[in-house]
Amino acid sequence: MTSNGPEDHQLIRSLEEMGEHIEFPETPEIAEAVVSAIASRRGISVLLPYGLMLIAIVILAISAPQVRSAMVDALNAIGIEIRTGESSREDETLSLLDEALFGVPVTMEEAQEAFGKSLAFPGEVLPGSPDAIYLKTESDGIVSVTFAYGSSESLPEIGETDIGAILTQITGPANHPYLVKSVFEMTTPIFVTEGNLQMQWIEQGELSRADDPDAWRASANVLIWLDGDVGYRLESRLSQEQSVHIAESMAKSESRNQLSFPVVREVSTRRNDEGGFS
Amino acid sequence: MASRESDEIELVVRAQRGDTAAFDTLVRLYQDLAFRTAWIILRHEHDAQDATQTAFIKAWSALSRFRTDQPFRPWLMRIVANEAKNRRDAQWRWYQLQRHVSQYFSGEHSFSAQDLIAKRETSQELLKAIGQLRENDQHVILLRYALGFTESEMTEILDIPAGTVKSRLHRALNRLKEVMDDDIEWS
């Protein structure tokens, strides 16, 4: 039955009538939470409670397009930089496990030796050994070890790859950004607190090199957190809740009683009339 | 209607200037529609609530780029629909899969369009039939007839050309008729 005969009009009338009589689930309170979230975002101030923190999470609230290259020079910490802004990029230039981001394949023993401290292993959702291990060492002493896990029924693949999760552990000296995480303008990094861990949950971001912002790729769902003096980044298509469970399962027992505050700075960069940024 | 539209534009302009009270009013004005739009896509109350809240926060962030000579409602609902679709496609895929599989094996696979309640028997039968359609077909029918979006608004919300909205709707209605021909008398 594919004609536009009288029965179509009758069906449409029935649908319109249905629309008038339908009852949706009751709408929960939304406005209060939204306005509260907006107010708290406005109220974020520079938080530098621990100057020796190795990893910095920097949020740049970029309101104008083509502002991705804005960098923070005065960082008193290294690590992961999160920017929000409008993406005007075209083709991705990096692959999912690009060597430029995560380094070269190594054995677990090589990774452990290069990292110089105990690597953490997830005990939830991602049990067992990783399917591949990557090591990246920088001349300035930053070291990252990345575990790649193959996709499975419970671990959806990222894009059209066979990879289900990418877990990176970063350590090194201060004063150097390592990974730059850019977030589309429509994406809001979400603060997540669980126990002593404070985390950032980001959807639909971009990942690029700190020393070459034009080398980039889109990223899946990302959770970034600190535990002691190590920064962690988990990328997957898992939910926020599942990702947080992984982070909790990796928390080192000796650091469970120590607060791990991400160093957070919000910088509002707004294009002024002269074309510069304020 | 004109007064309501002008009031709405005034609220948007105030919100663009940073007036959170004006934005609060806009949220309260559209939260029902936004929640229902998200619910149609996500089929889960808690997920729909999260998606709606996040979408409003994103709308606030993007408000400076909204052109006030354009209709606000479809612009806002597009953000809501995108947020809901992203959640459905990404982090909830695993969860939804599990849920649907368990429902399938427990015999509850003709799903949650029936979670909606219609007061009339014919409407309930229609909902039951809609519940047997593929997801995209359900979306266009429910957005059009349960929430009353115009085809023009659906073009914006679903981010597809106007001709595609028409053809999707046409195909969905044909499939609905086929289902109903198999199952029930709907006249």
What's this entry about, in short?
The complex is a heterodimer of chains A (about 280) and B (about 190). With about 280 residues, chain A is an alpha+beta fold.
Describe this entry's structure for a reader.
The complex is a heterodimer of chains A (278) and B (187). Helix content of chain A is 19%, strand content 34%. Chain A has 5 helices and 15 strands. In chain A, the strands form 2 sheets. An 8-stranded antiparallel sheet of chain A has the order 4-5-6-7-14-13-10-9. In chain A, β9 (190-194) and β10 (197-202) form a beta hairpin. Chain B is built from 9 helices and 1 strand; from the N terminus they run αααααβαααα. With 187 residues, chain B is an all-alpha fold. The two termini of chain B are 34 Å apart. Chains A and B meet through α1, β1 and α2 of A and α2, α3, α4, α5 and β1 of B.
Order of helices and strands of chain B: HHHHHEHHHH
Helical run tally of chain A = 5
> Residue share in helices of chain B?
over 70%
C-alpha-based Rg of chain B, rounded: 18 Å
- Gap between N and C termini of chain A: 63 Å
Give the amount of beta strand of chain B, in percent.
under 5%
Average predicted confidence as pLDDT of chain A: 66
State the shape of chain B: elongated
Main sheet attributes: strand count, strand direction, barrel closure of chain A: 8 strands, antiparallel
- Category from helices, strands and their pairing of chain B: mainly alpha
How much of the sequence lies in strands of chain A comes to: 25-35%
Overall number of strands of chain B: 1
Weakly predicted, low-confidence segments of chain A:
43-81, 174-186, 253-278
Q: What is the radius of gyration of chain A computed over CA atoms, rounded to a whole number of angstroms?
A: 22 Å
- N-to-C SSE series of chain A? HEHEEHEHEEEEEEEEEEHE
Report the largest inter-chain contact: A-B, 47 and 58 residues
Task: Give the strand order, joined by hyphens, for the main sheet of chain A.
Answer: 4-5-6-7-14-13-10-9
